[in-house]
Amino acid sequence: MDIGIVRETYVGETRVPLIPLAVGELVRQGHRVVIQSEAGLASGFDDQAYRDVGATIVYSTDEAFSRARIVLKVYPPSRDEYRRLEAGQILFSFLDLSLATRETLELLISRRVSAIGFEAIEESGGERPVLTAMSEIAGALIVPISAHYLQARQGGRGILLGGAPGVAPATVVVLGAGVVGASAALAASALGAHVIVLDRDVARLRALVARNLAGIITSTASPYNLRRFVPVADVLVGAVFLTMEATPHLLDHDLIRRMRPGSVFVDVAIDQGGCSTTSRPTTILDPVYVEEGVLHFGVPNIPALVPRTATVALSNVLLPYLERLAAVGAEAVLAEGGPLARGFYTHDGVCLKRRIAQPLSLPFRDIAE
């Protein structure tokens, strides 16, 4: 199977899907891997490292696409990249197609592209291994990001996250107790912050309490509790995630306005639309803006801040799925069912996700068929 790795073009995106060791394993198995020049440079892997394991270096995006049966990326493709896809290719990347335009989905369907989203790969127990690997890193980064923007020089309230002897710590309010939210809550608690976590799923809150040694306050994410806790937050973390759906706006301008000036809002759900009407995407090069007196951090690709760690973690979890896909092809993967099959959004001219197809009246087929 011919596999093409495309250099990322989104502002500040520094990850690459596979490290040289993983590429070498695919080459050893008989696959041909082409990688666009400097695709791995920001992660610490130069072109020679990929040449040494048998990859072919190409010097244009067109060539990386045209020589590939499987097009491999990290960040969801741009409109230009979608238009480069050829009939029958397999697109394997983070896709987040629950927010895609009708034009994008119609292109994938008309060109009979097999579109597989990293975020949609789902094990039998509901775990999403590729998404989890990146979510753990994003969750760990939220605390240093928040601590940085709380500094007065950055426009923040000028407070230390963990406080000081005789000085109360910051209050961190986390919306969502999934992988990102739990990671952020535990990290903030370990530094001594006062942490409050809200979620609609009491089982998630119970699991978080069981893991915590320092003490975290948990509460249900009711409208009453949002109005109660959001205004007292020095740091507000939006870590809400719904499968195959846009993130609901749990917060609005009025509620954000009630927060203290210089507070920090990190909306990790921005890649699914954000959980506040005040949220909008930003980039790593220009990460914050002020709305209603609150610093908003809306970077959708937070793990790209630590590309070496993120790339190795992504490559480790991605390789087994890619090996299977390259070995047997899309049709066989779908016939087998299982985690990778559940990652398919489109295949052979139809959409395989009912929640996406039906609202747009697109051709749909159940994956079991």
Give a written overview of the molecule:
By secondary structure, this protein is α/β, with parallel strands linked by helices. The chain has two domains: 2-120 and 307-360, 3-Layer(aba) Sandwich (Rossmann fold); 131-300, NAD(P)-binding Rossmann-like Domain (Rossmann fold, 3-Layer(aba) Sandwich), CATH 3.40.50. It is 34% helix and 16% strand. It has an eight-stranded mixed sheet, sandwiched between helices. A seven-stranded mixed sheet has the order 9-8-7-10-11-13-12, sandwiched between helices. Strand 5 (90-93), helix 5 (102-110) and strand 6 form a beta-alpha-beta unit. Helix 6 packs parallel to helix 7 and helix 6 packs antiparallel against helix 11 (307-336). The longest helix is centred in the C-terminal third of the chain and has 30 residues, at 307-336. The radius of gyration is 21 Å and the shape is globular. It starts with a strand and ends in a 9-residue tail after the last helix.
Radius of gyration: 21 Å
User: What is the overall silhouette?
Assistant: globular
Average pLDDT score: 94
Question: What is the count of helical runs?
Answer: 12
- Looking across the biggest beta sheet, what order are the strands in? 3-2-1-4-5-6-14-15
Summarize the structure.
This protein has helices spanning 20-28, 47-51, 61-66, 79-84, 102-110, 129-149, 179-190, 202-211, 223-229, 253-257, 307-336, 354-360; strands spanning 2-5, 32-36, 56-58, 70-72, 90-93, 114-117, 171-175, 194-199, 217-220, 235-238, 264-267, 288-291, 294-297, 344-347, 350-351. By secondary structure, the chain is an alpha/beta fold. It has two domains: 2-120 and 307-360, Rossmann fold, CATH 3.40.50; 131-300, NAD(P)-binding Rossmann-like Domain (Rossmann fold), CATH 3.40.50.
